Each structure stands twice: as structure tokens, then as C-alpha cells.
From TrEMBL:
A Pfam entry, by short name: dTDP_sugar_isom
The organism of origin for this protein: Aureitalea marina
The name this protein goes by in its record: dTDP-4-dehydrorhamnose 3,5-epimerase
Molecular-function GO terms, alphabetical: dTDP-4-dehydrorhamnose 3,5-epimerase activity
Pathway the protein takes part in: Carbohydrate biosynthesis; dTDP-L-rhamnose biosynthesis
Length: 181
């Protein structure tokens, strides 16, 4: 298991060691001690989530505010997604900056999304199963979001707009400038 830097302060990628043989593959997907070493954070993950999506499904950009903010450790168990994060911590040197990485069942990469980041992903394969750990519970009243195609953020989702499948809720999200962070 190794830690790979991203340009956004506090966020990093985890690459597990993958063992391959005639049966398939094996890899460790989470180790508490390694995670603490990589993140420097001693806070337990308290909720695991999973979603399944078809090609073109875009979920995001989401975050929870204040005391209910969540850090997430995300990965694609099946298929491939483009995962996108935006640093929305006003006091951060990388405030407003974004980073994206392809996560797949081939590269086995995981992305650590710190508290104070907006997060989203789009499915690039026919189907994806996306799994993530959260260090705070889901709280509907703390949910916030930013519209995926905000012109200021100018995120590249790699697919044509006509291919995207987005929930009504996500299509109504505000621009970055108007979002209550
Ligand atoms: C996220 C979440 C949703 N739900 C419910 C609310 C709703 O009825 C249904 C679907 O919720 P959503 O449409 O918000 O699901 P989704 O769009 O997949 O939301 C997720 O998107 C990605 C990008 C994230 O970063 C996650 O933190 C989360 O916000 O599931 C829970 O019960 N617990 C949860 O933790």
C-alpha cells in the first residue's frame, strides 16, 4: 500500500499492492494503521456507502457542512469512474482548485477526500459499483452541493453533456459562487 500525492492539500491517493494469479487478484483495501500513517488523522470511519451506476451517471458535487462534514475514502469496486474533488475550504491555499483521477477495478486506486471538499464522480464504463468510507454520519440537513458544470470551476467530466445522466436534485445545485459552503 503506498500513498501518492495529489495537488490539493490533505488529499492523497492510495495504491494497494495487487497480487495476481491464475484465480484472479487479491488486494487489501483498508488498513487502519496505514491509513492513520498516510493521513495523520486519528478519527474512525463510521459509515460505509455503496452505489451502482450506469454509463454517464454523474453524482455530485456533494458535501456536508460544518460539524457534519465528512471525509471519504472512495474507490470503484466494479468498472471505471472519473472522480472529481474541489477544495472548498476558504482558508486553504488550494481553495477553489480541483483534482480528478480515474478510479477503476483495474487500477484499484482509492482517493482520500478530506473534510471541506466537494466530491463527485461520473461513470465511464457500462456499469460501476462505487464504495466509500465516511468519517461522519449522513445528515440530510447538512447536505450542500455545487452544480457539476459551474463555469468558474470549469471541470472536465470527459463525457459529452448529452451523455450525462444526473438527478433532478443535482441539476438544481447552485453555482460555486452562490453555494453555502
Ligand atoms: C449519501 C446518502 C444518501 N442516502 C439516501 C438519500 C436519498 O434518498 C438516497 C440517494 O441519495 P443521493 O441522491 O444523495 O445519493 P448520491 O448522489 O449517490 O450521493 C452521494 O454522492 C457522492 C458524490 C458523494 O460524495 C456522497 O457523499 C453522496 O453525497 O439515499 C442515505 O440514506 N444515506 C446516505 O449516506
Amino acid at each position: 500500500m503506498e500513498r501518492i500525492e495529489t495537488p490539493l492539500a490533505g488529499s492523497f491517493i492510495i495504491r494497494p499492492r495487487v497480487f495476481e494469479d491464475e484465480r484472479g487478484i487479491f488486494c487489501e483495501t483498508f488498513k487502519d494503521d496505514k491509513f492513520k500513517e498516510f493521513s495523520g488523522i486519528d478519527r474512525p470511519f463510521v459509515q460505509d456507502n455503496q452505489s451502482a451506476s450506469t454509463y454517464g451517471v454523474l453524482r455530485g458535487l456533494h458535501f456536508q457542512r460544518g460539524e457534519m462534514s465528512q471525509s471519504k475514502l472512495v474507490r470503484a469496486v466494479v468498472g471505471e469512474v472519473l472522480d472529481v474533488i474541489v477544495d472548498i475550504r476558504r482558508d486553504s491555499p488550494t481553495f477553489g482548485q480541483s483534482f480528478s483521477v480515474r478510479l477503476s477495478d483495474k487500477n484499484h486506486l482509492q482517493l482520500y477526500v478530506p473534510r471541506g471538499f466537494a466530491h463527485g464522480f461520473v461513470t465511464l464504463s457500462p456499469r460501476s459499483v462505487f464504495a466509500y468510507k465516511c468519517d461522519n454520519y449522513y445528515d440530510k440537513s447538512s447536505e450542500g452541493g455545487i452544480i457539476y458544470n459551474d463555469p468558474e470551476l470549469a471541470l472536465d467530466w470527459e463525457l459529452d453533456a448529452s451523455e450525462l445522466i444526473i438527478s433532478e436534485k443535482d441539476l438544481l445545485l447552485p453555482k460555486f459562487q452562490d453555494a453555502s459552503l
